[in-house]
Design brief:
Beta-Lactamase; 57% helix; 5 strands; 5-stranded antiparallel beta sheet; Arc Repressor Mutant, subunit A; alpha+beta; 15% strand; 253 residues; 2 domains
Length: 253
C-alpha cells in the first residue's frame, strides 16, 4: 500500500532533522532537501550556502540543468537566489518573461534553459542567514500558499539541522563546514564527468549511480567519488548497487 502524503512528509522532516550522526554527509543531506522539494512541488530545485565573505556556493541541485543555471546565476551575480539571500525575503511566482528588467543577466540564461517561473526561499534561523533555495519551473504554474509554507518549513528544518551539526562538531563558523562540503563537491563533479564519459551517460545518471552506491554501502559521497576517480570502484559495481538503492528510496507524495 503506497504511503500517504502525510506519512511521506513526516518521514522527510525526520530525515532532515537527523544530523547528529557520526558519518553525517552534508552534501547528501542537502541533496535530500532538494530532492524532496522537487518531488513535492514538481519543480527543479537548487541550494546555495554562503561562505564567510557572503559569497554563495552551489552545493546541491535536483538536475544538471538546474546546476548549470545556478552556477551562471552566481557567476553573473544576478538572480533570485542572490536577491533572496541578500534580503532574507521570499521571492514567489516571478514570471521570467516579465522579469528581464529585474534580473537582466540571469533571465535570458534561465529562459534558454527552459525555465519560465522562479521562486527563492531563504535558509535562515532568526537573524542568521546561511543561504537560499531556488525553485524553478518549466511551466508557468504558481505556487499555492500551502505549498510555499511546506517548502519553507523543509528549508527551515534543514537550516536548523545544518547549524545544529556545526555546533555539535564544535566548528568555529559555517565556513569550516562549507569548505569541507566544497571539497566534496569538487570530487563528486570530477567523478560525474568520469562516469559520463566512460558510460556515455548524462551527468544526472552519473550522479544517481554515485549516490546509489554511497547509500547502499553507507559511505560518504566524496569517498565514493574518490574511489571512482582512482579506479578502486568500477562503473559495473555502481550499476549493481543501484537496484538495491532504488528499493530503499522514498516515494513521492
Amino acid at each position: 500500500m503506497p504511503e500517504s502524503r502525510e506519512q511521506w512528509l513526516a518521514e522527510t522532516f525526520v530525515e532532515l532533522s537527523d544530523t547528529l550522526v557520526a558519518d553525517f554527509d552534508l552534501i547528501d543531506f542537502l541533496h535530500v532537501l532538494v530532492e524532496r522539494c522537487s518531488q513535492l512541488l514538481s519543480v527543479e530545485v537548487g541550494l546555495v550556502l554562503a561562505d564567510e565573505q557572503g559569497t554563495l556556493q552551489n552545493l546541491a541541485s535536483s538536475t544538471e540543468r538546474m546546476h548549470v543555471v545556478e552556477l551562471f546565476e552566481i557567476q553573473s551575480e544576478d538572480g533570485p537566489c542572490l536577491e533572496c539571500y541578500g534580503s532574507g525575503q521570499q521571492i514567489l511566482n516571478e514570471r521570467l518573461n516579465a522579469g528581464a528588467a529585474r534580473w537582466p543577466r540571469f533571465t535570458p540564461s534561465a529562459l534558454e534553459a527552459g525555465f519560465t517561473i522562479v521562486h527563492a526561499l531563504p535558509l535562515h534561523l532568526r537573524n542568521e542567514r546561511i543561504g537560499a533555495m531556488n525553485l524553478f519551473g518549466a511551466q508557468t504554474v504558481p505556487l499555492e500558499p500551502h505549498e510555499v509554507h511546506l517548502a519553507q518549513a523543509l528549508a527551515d528544518v534543514a537550516t536548523i539541522g545544518i547549524l545544529q551539526e556545526r555546533s555539535v562538531r564544535h566548528l568555529s563558523d559555517l565556513s569550516t563546514q562549507l569548505q569541507a562540503a566544497l571539497q566534496s563537491r569538487i570530487a563528486i563533479e570530477q567523478a560525474k564527468g568520469v562516469l559520463a564519459e566512460r558510460q556515455r551517460a548524462s551527468m544526472d545518471e552519473a550522479f544517481a549511480l554515485l549516490r546509489g552506491y554511497a547509500r547502499s554501502h553507507n559511505l560518504r559521497l566524496a569517498h565514493v567519488a574518490a574511489s571512482v576517480i582512482d579506479g578502486t570502484v568500477s562503473a559495473k559495481q555502481l550499476r549493481e548497487a543501484r537496484p538495491a538503492a532504488a528499493q530503499g528510496a522514498r516515494r513521492s507524495p
